[in-house]
Amino acid sequence: MSPAIRVRTPGELRASRRRRAHRCWGHLLAAPLWPLHGANLGTLLRTCDAVGACLAVPRFPWVPEALRRGNTLRQPACVHWVNDPLGWLAREREAGSAVVGVELADESIRLADLPAARGRTIVVLGHEQHGVPPDALDLLDSVVEIPMVGTGSSLNVAVAGSLVLYKLAGLV
Question: Which terminus of the chain has a smaller tally of CB atoms within 10 A, N or C?
Fold first, then answer.
């Protein structure tokens, strides 16, 4: 008797995916602009590749090494380097990008109710202990909340960013 579920082989998976890294599509950007833990950046970079998004990160001295260490992709990924997070967000918003923060707020949209992105969308992820800085809140067009029933107050940047990116990409 054969198994009821047939798992695809690595060769079948490779044949069904892109052969090369995507160029910058400019549609979705994950922006952990105030990162705390480097390991989360590499994980988030892999999610960006999976959904066709780019990663926007600050030019902190330790970030390039954190990305190299956590990146298991065979091809280069799309990374945008940000020197001035608040200035960059303001310019992106002025240029017409939708800026969506992942934060607990009275005005938050529940993750399940978040529609797929229809234009260039920046997903702003805050510091894992302090969230999105107060100076950046006025630069957000909307805020999405990830419901939690446990005792923790937040998810790590990689998990939160991954959930929101998959939803905005229309893949869940």
Answer: N
Q: pLDDT per residue over 38-85, tens digit each?
A: 878 988 998 998 899 999 999 999 998 888 887 777 677 889 999 999
Coil, strand or helix: which one is 71? coil
d(CA 72, CA 68): 8
- Both tokens of 49, joined, read 């590749």
Structure tokens at 20: 């090369």
- How far apart are alpha carbons 130 and 150 in whole angstroms? 19
Distance CA 67, CA 157 (A): 14
**For residues 88 and 82, is the Cβ–Cβ distance under 8 A?**
yes
Cα–Cα distance, 172 to 154 (Å, whole number): 21
Q: Are 82 and 31 in contact (CB under 8 A)?
A: yes
Which pTM does this prediction carry? Answer: 0.86
